[in-house]
Amino acid sequence: MLKLSDATQKSRYLIIVVLFLMVMCTVTGMINRARKAPITPVTLSESRTFGDLPPIKISELNYVYKDNLNFELNTISGRLPVDEYPITYIYKFSEPVQSLTAKEDAGKLAKELGYFKVPQVTDARHYKWSSLLGTRILQYDSLSKEVSIQTDLNKDPYLKQDHEVLANTDIYKEQFKSFLSGLPGTRFPADYAEGNSTVEYLIFKNNKFERTIDASSLADFFEINLFRQVPISPTVADTTATTATKTTTTQIGGLDISNGLNLNSKEVKENLDYAPVFNDDPFKANIRAIIAGDRIVVSNIVEFNMNVHEINYEEVGAYKIITYEEAYNKLIKGDGNLVYISDFDSNKAKKATKFSINNAKLGYFEGAQFQQFIQPIYIFSGIMTFADESRADFYFYIPAIK
Fold first, then answer.
1. Which residue spans traverse the membrane (predicted)?
2. Fewest Cβ atoms closer than 10 Å to its Cβ: which of 105, 146, 204, 299?
């Protein structure tokens, strides 16, 4: 039997080691190049992941105006905005699930908010507490996780007191987010924490809250709203072509969404455009509060509402939407949803003679009631004129899905 010399064996071992190192270098180089390579835009095709979407349920004001449709476009440019997104993302809301610890969560939430009385339990999911003075009511839905605090504006002595407020609204915003993140039995997702927030200063007059500009000398209260923002479309996407067939894809706009949209991912944040989410009232978010004084503590919370429908970002579809012009044509034909008129109680009996549109934009709609999907809408706003020459602000919503 022939035996290889030691030199021959060493040579073979050396060749094998060299070949192995060459293969490893090649593989490592390919991986590094893949990591460093920019996101490659792909066609954002019409991905009918969810099939035909149900109509959006938008609550309209009880106001008659369609017998006199008189609209004029009065934007700064004199034109409608440029259409940027022929196709947008559609998301599915997660179905609420009753927790096995719902009762314990309700008790922890009540104590955290300063309500120590025995709750009224109306059914298996709804809880209600009253404050020690009986002037405030805390309600909690253990299925939807909705929380609300309402105050008797006629009886609560706290409303009659003077409260010092801060001029720096950023302090309130950060305090409020920190407060929400620690509430047991609730949801405070990142798309709210990173969305737009507003602070307005209030005075309590004639048993109601009124807005005031002068925060330092007049205001005793402030109202804070946290608005959600969601990815509307990738900034790098090629949206010029669509497919005729209905497809399901795990890559939209060059972004791999097979594991959902990770909103904390730097890659996702840098390559997505975001859009604001509107409620039935364009000025009230699904997370809002009226608070007294200079600190966000439970004793200062006069009103509070937290009604968050959780979005399942692992279920994403892409749908074609109508253009600004198509939405505008629907509006002037009377197919819009009139959702807001300023000082509505005083103006609801007046006859509108003209709607002057100052602004149009694209956003999403999330109403107070649970809906299966969060869908895009066009928002038209401006100033309406009444027969007596008085004026008011208005907002219309137009569903955007084709």
1. 12-31
2. 299
